[in-house]
Amino acid sequence: xxxxxxxxxxxxxxxxxxxxxxxxxxxxxxxxxxxxxxxxxxxxxxxxxxxxxxxxxxxxxxxxxxxxxxxxxxxxxxxxxxxxxxxxxxxxxxxxxxxxxxxxxxxxxxxxxxxxxxxxxxxxxxxxxxxxxxxxxxxxxxxxxxxxxxxxxxxxxxxxxxxxxxxxxxxxxxxxxxxxxxxxxxxxxxxxxxxxxxxxxxxxxxxxxxxxxxxxxxxxxxxxxxxxxxxxxxxxxxxxxxxxxxxxxxxxxxxxxxxxxxxxxxxxxxxxxxxxxxxxxxxxxxxxxxxxxxxxxxxxxxxxxxxxxxxxxxxxxxxxxxxxxxxxx
Length: 329
What we know:
Blueprint: H1 7-19, H2 23-26, H3 33-49, H4 53-65, H5 73-83, H6 87-94, H7 103-115, H8 119-130, H9 137-154, H10 156-164, H11 174-186, H12 190-203, H13 210-222, H14 226-233, H15 244-255, H16 259-267, H17 277-290, H18 293-306, H19 311-328
């Protein structure tokens, strides 16, 4: 669900790419179309994971030029187009194919449709998901939650009435509980929102879905329940890796006053985490709070490289140099 690559993971994926370079000689001359189809899908996905969506799309174009196509190409294509700024093209590609999309492609397309407030497409996605065999109840729940979000933008009063008509105490759909709670919070029904969120937290013990834990963690973060949010983030953001999840966890540690946990998290990050702006700024905050000039000095060059024209970057460097030099003396 979450793309958290350490150096070893990245090197392994890069070795896969090298193994199929140049593709004209190593991939497209394979005799079995089925093998080419699977390999092209995996190779394109690898480029997506390595944040090279343009190359992922190029692999798919080459495959089709060699008369190779697959329903599994569409998920990669939808995500690749969206990642390269061609969101409208992705929506146009997916909409006429909703009923024939794989479950992975359907989830990707539905997210794009939700972000575009396309309620009609979301409804079609839900019906398509309900027809999958074997059944995909988790996907159906996620899509139903997207529908609440889009409907709330169109008819807030109607959605509020619909939410209040549901017996949430007997509902086990975490995505719908979280989304309904957010709808209620948006119209200042804080107490009702907290009750639904408490129900969602209680249900976490019954799920193995990392995505559902993420939804609850985000909802707790938005509700400023930082300590409880951190407890959920800890389940999906393992030590020794780095991602936006880890930045969110670091934020929760800082806002709940848990500096020791924050320092433990930062110390376990893999190399080059300093290049992530959100995490770096939170680490700078931690360094100032804890008076940890060793940590701050490690962040100077990354901050200066990302904002070389800002006076604050140079002031930060001057402060770190002056402090570390004084301590050395």
